Protein 1
Amino acid sequence: MSDVETTPGRHSWGRRIWGLVKWGLIVVLVLFLVLLVLGVGLLEVPFHLLLGWAPYLAHVVPQAQVNVELLLCSLGALALGMVGLQYLMSRLCAPKRWTWRWTLTWCGILIVMFSTSIAAVGIVHQVGWLFQLPGWIEMGGIGTQTKAMNNARQVVLAARQYASAHDGKFPESCAEMIPEIVTDSRIFWASVDRNMPVEPLIYAGAGMRDTDDGSLLVVWTPRPSSDGRRVIARLDGSAEVVREEKFQEMLAAFRKRLFQHEAAAETPR
């Protein structure tokens, strides 16, 4: 009779465990597909996820310090909790006998749940830490474009800082900002594709003023990426990655506006 009664419970736990495994496989599959779309090296994915914790622990564990007082307080709180649970449940379950075995089981489940939550936080932190590694980001090509956007934005901001000290007039070339404004000339170089060489950014701020239209193009990458994208920066300091078709439209509008500005400047008053 006892075997028959315990069978449904075992099947129920089996279904729950299989459900958790199934959802875990679905999450892993979705993550795999996302990495595949981003173009991240698939051989590096399982390696970093499975073994990436080793260098992290090697870096963190030597810095960890054991707080003996906190440890003793935690053990004392656990002991008091077990005693309190045993006393409370023995009172509530007066018709039946509540044993210490059940108390230890529930406390063990609580400790496992607490440890699992800490492990889940650690896994999320580990995955986030891995995706912030420069080499990992570069594999997807995202870091290259992000760095190019940052450099283009810095060039525009440096030009605006130069203009604030020169009656609102932008420098004629990037060289005029060295070393007065810019101390590291590497911001004038960028690439939008990891397979392309680093090239000097195109600066078109000569003759502009800080009071001009903020949507004017000031800086852009000399060549599009392999998927037809360029990095641009506007006079207002904003930077973004645009398609080559959109860039050509923006460049045509920029040239037209520049021609109109030169024509208006040459017209006698």
Protein 2
Amino acid sequence: MQNNNSYSVEGFLKEVKPTKTFDKFTVREFVVETKEKYPQPLAFELYDDTKNVLESIPVGQSVNVFFSQRGRVFNGRTFVTNRAWKIETIAGGKVDTSTPQAADSTATPAKKTAAKTPAAAQPQADETPF
């Protein structure tokens, strides 16, 4: 992973933020979620001519990000930036981030309703005084 102060991480593209333009440069931030037992969201930045590389990569796509870390001190605090310089897509690695959430939200209430309906219907019939 480490090679002359550069690193790589594999995950899926979780978020792409709008481009920001400053006096001397342009930057675009994006987030990749790692493929680990406990996934981690990692923030990266692309600068100037490399910022448009994200236009062709859909959110949810599996990617391998190559980056360098930059550090700086500001007002006595140290900040670290992950500066991406190459992004590779991984074939067949598209993750659908909307479908699983929708399926889970509709499946869970259906299971609860199905489980409660027969049990709830029978005691009401038994508890009726007439």
Protein 3
Amino acid sequence: MDKSKMLMLLNETYGIDLSDEDALYLEGIQIKLNKNSDLKKFMASATAREKMKFKFDRAVDDLLLDFLGTKLDLYIKLTEPKVNMIFKSRWFEKCRRQIAFA
């Protein structure tokens, strides 16, 4: 899911009012996830979807923690439970498909 679709989904569904600047930060998270070789190796070798999802969610959470000092408002928006669940799930499925077809 590209950043504009993710932004629209979260804004329309949860009314969290993510800005274009926030979208750039979201894109940065995706880039870092895509470059995370440990995560890719784990997801390529893991057989249980739940284990893959847990590892992926932890990687996203670690990246979100980086926002505490710089983008607290975005951190608060993205850690709201329903928002957090939907964007992690969408990104996880995208990442899983990319690894499966790599």
Protein 4
Amino acid sequence: MPGARHGGCPEDCRGSPPQASTTSVWDVTLLSEEEINTALGTLRGWARSGASITSTVELADFREAMLYTGAVAYLAEAANHHPDILIQWNRVTLTLSTHSEGGLTAADMALAGRISTLR
């Protein structure tokens, strides 16, 4: 449908994805346990899983899961920070970690916060 919003996708997600930035806008220093716990307290639907955080959302069907995944990809490209994504028919599991740092950083928490606004 022309002009329709897709799976929580921001209005401007139709068309080309944003250009990835060559520098991160977020701090990529590993967070302390206290910082991780504080950040998780503000993130709806995210949980700690070792050196990562995960979120699983259940949608109406496969189509909605794919549209949601597209919206996540749009946000990830804009942030130049990319989650691992597992799609199981109507269920999407996202895992965030800053692989280059070996754990969780402000970049993970910031992207998780943006993704949370999709639901």
